[in-house]
Amino acid sequence: MSNISIRHVQAFIEVARSGSFTRAAEHLHLTQSALTATIKQLEQDAGLTLFDRTTRRVVLSAEGEHFMPVAERLVSDFNAALDDLRARAELQQGKVSMAGSPSVVTRLIPGALVEFRRQYPSIQVDIRDESAGSLEQRVLNNEVDFAIAGNHSQQPELSYSPLLSDRYGLVLPADHPLARMRLLSWQQLPDDDLLLLSEDTGIRAQLQRFSQSGHIPVQLDHVQIEVSNPAGMAALISKGLGVSLLPALAADTHSFAGVAFVPLHDPVVEREICVITRKGRALSPAAAALLDTARQHLAKVDLPNWVETLHD
């Protein structure tokens, strides 16, 4: 295996440009003997004489002339690669990819992204709106740096850091008789058709767990209409097709502007929204900066009613 490194190539270029081992050694902050040994090692490894030595000057041999542009390109590419690494560390460029539940992407991320783009305009950002199960899998597969969503399945290879909690409530048409209530108990749920999100969503999975454990007095086995995303749910509720059970943040997006949200109690049921990362994998500087910006944004923004920040 060759012991030649970029240091040998840099020494070769400096000697060729200086035409002198003495001047090259001064520029490289080396002793002349150390530089001579470096060039000798390079020539021995290559099996070629790269310099012709005279009493007055050191000049490139024919082989050295041929190698010179290649050496300069190697050093240039090496320096460019180092500059790129430093730039990424200093957040001058790079890419960060995150996934989030629909309510997070719609309600929380835009404000944080405005601030992030102001500070780091050269960082490319990829944001994916995913169901809970899909985004956990993306984190596991290293397809995204992190996700912000509910804890869907407590994957052992993932870390869930609490960020927000939001309370479940009843979402119903604005002209519904119960729309003006300040609070409702679970026993007061109306007989209207219950519309639910599909089973691949974190909200539905959590409601299923609460129902099966008897924590809430609601049977979810015979749902007439299921919807895959909250925006579609809002459209159906606004047309009077039924009511739904959603956390406050999910019911605070623009799609729900024309419907009512009444928080439920007895018992109070909350969803925990977490930062989801893969255990043992450090975030890149860009991803860490985006996550830090999101936390700072949440600390100063007015959150919807029944939504609260959490801390580890």
Automatic annotation (TrEMBL):
InterPro entries: HTH-type_LysR_regulators, LysR_HTH_N, LysR_subst-bd, WH-like_DNA-bd_sf, WH_DNA-bd_sf. GO terms for molecular function: DNA binding; DNA-binding transcription factor activity. One of its GO terms (cellular component) is cytosol. SUPFAM superfamilies: Periplasmic binding protein-like II (SSF53850), Winged helix' DNA-binding domain (SSF46785). Residues 4-61 form the HTH lysR-type domain. It comes from the Bacteria. The keyword Transmembrane does not apply. Keywords: DNA-binding, Transcription, Transcription regulation. PANTHER family: HTH-TYPE TRANSCRIPTIONAL REGULATOR YBHD, LYSR FAMILY TRANSCRIPTIONAL REGULATOR. Belongs to the LysR transcriptional regulatory family. This is DNA-binding transcriptional regulator, LysR family.
